[in-house]
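Dock NDP; give full complex structure.
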Amino acid sequence: MAKVLCVLYDDPVDGYPKSYAIDSIPKLEKYPGGQTMPTPKGIDFKPGALLGCVSGELGLRKFLESNGHTLVVTSDKDGANSTLDRELVDAEVVISQPFWPAYLTRERIAKAPKLKLAITAGIGSDHVDLQAAMDRELTVAEVTYCNSISVAEHVVMMILALVRNYIPSYDWVIKNGWNIADCAARSYDVEGMNVGTVGAGRIGSAVLRRMKPFDVKLHYTDRHRLSPEIEKELGLTFHPNAESLVKVCDVVTINTPLHPETEHMFDDAMIGKMKRGAYLVNTARGKICDRDAVARALKDGQLAGYAGDVWFPQPPPKDHPWRSMPHHGMTPHVSGTSLSAQARYAAGVREILECWFEKRPIRDEYLIVSGGKLAGAGAHSYSAGNATGGSEEAAKFKK
Ligand code: NDP
C-alpha cells in the first residue's frame, strides 16, 4: 500500500467555504480539439467545490483510504524541516499544484527513495527537476488541458485590463475619486493592435481564437507551426522566433512551458527588442521572464504594462519587485485554479492514480517524464534539463 503526499495551498483565511457564489458549474463534454475530459471511475466531490486547498484534499481521501493507501495533505512545503521534507522520506506518490508548488529538486528526490510518481494537479511540471526525475526513472504526469481554457480567459482579461487601464481606474472609485483624466491618460483601445503569442499550444491558440473578435492583427511563434487552415481561419502571421514577433507586436502574451529553452527568454535584450510601450502578459511561468528586467522596463517606459499570475519562486518573498513595480496587473497564481478548473484537475488526478494503482497505462497526453526520458506531452513541449534552480527562496515568504 502506498503513501501519497499531497501538497496544497492553505484554506481561505475565513475558513473552508460553507456555500458558493453559484450553485452549479457547466458540464463540459470534451475539450476543444476533441480530447476527452478526465475519466476516473468515480469522484467523491461536488464539481464547483473548493478542492485545491488543504481541506479540499482534491477529493481524494475516501478513494485512497478505502483502497488501503495513506494520504498526507500539507501546505508546509518550504524551508528547513518542512512537513514536505519530513513526509517525503517514505512517500511513493507526491501530488502538487503549480499554484503552490512543492519544488521537487534533485536533493529532495534523493531523500525520497520510495518516490515513483509525481503528479501535477494542473499543467506545468517545471517545479519538478525533470532531469533528476529522468535520471531516477520517476514518472511525472500532469492533467493536460484541464485549465488551458481557464488561463486563456485570464489572458484576455489581463490584456484588456492593461490596455484599457482598468485597475488604476477601479482604484479611483475605491479612493472615492472621479478622476477621468487620470484614468484616461493611459487608456487605449485594443482594436487594430498587433497581438502576438509566444507558444501557440492549447492556451496560446485559445487566446488567439478569443482575441480575434476584437479586430486585432494576430501573430504567433511556436516550435511546431499550426495548420494552414487554422492560420487562414484566424488570419495569423507566423514568426520563426520570438525576436521577430516582439518587434511588431503591441501586446505579447507568453504561453510556453518553462524549460531550459524558455528560462529567462524575456531578459533585457528581448524586452529591448519590443516596441516602446508594448504590453507583456505572462501567465505561463514567472521564470520565463527576468524579474529585474521586467521591473526596469516598466520604470523606464519600455513596457507600458505587465500582467500575469506566475512568479518565481512561489510564493514570492514579500519584497519581490513585481509587487511594487509601476503599471502592473499581477495576481497570485490563480488563473488555472478557478473552481471550474479544480473539478477537472481533481478528476484528472484521480484518473492518474486509478491507472497507477491498477497498473494501467496513464494516458500518453498526461505524461511528461516516463522510463527515464521526456514522454507524451513532455516530449512534445519540453526540453530536457532542470528549471527549479533558486526555488529554495520560496522559504523567504514566511519571513
Ligand atoms: P501546450 O503544451 O499545449 O502548449 C505549449 C506550447 O509552447 C507548445 O505549442 C510548445 O510547442 C510551445 N513551446 C515550447 N517551447 C517553446 C519555445 N522554446 N518557443 C516557442 N514555443 C515553445 O500547453 P498549454 O498551452 O496548456 O500550457 C502552456 C503552459 O502554460 C504550461 O506549460 C504552464 O507552464 C502554463 N500554465 C499556466 C497556468 C496558470 O494557472 N497560470 C495553468 C496552465 C498552464 P510544441 O509543443 O509545438 O513544441
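Observed: The pocket of NDP is lined by residues 122-124, 147-148, 151, 198-204, 221-224, 255-258, 261-262, 283-285, 309-310, 333, 335-336, 377, 380-381 (CB under 6 Å).
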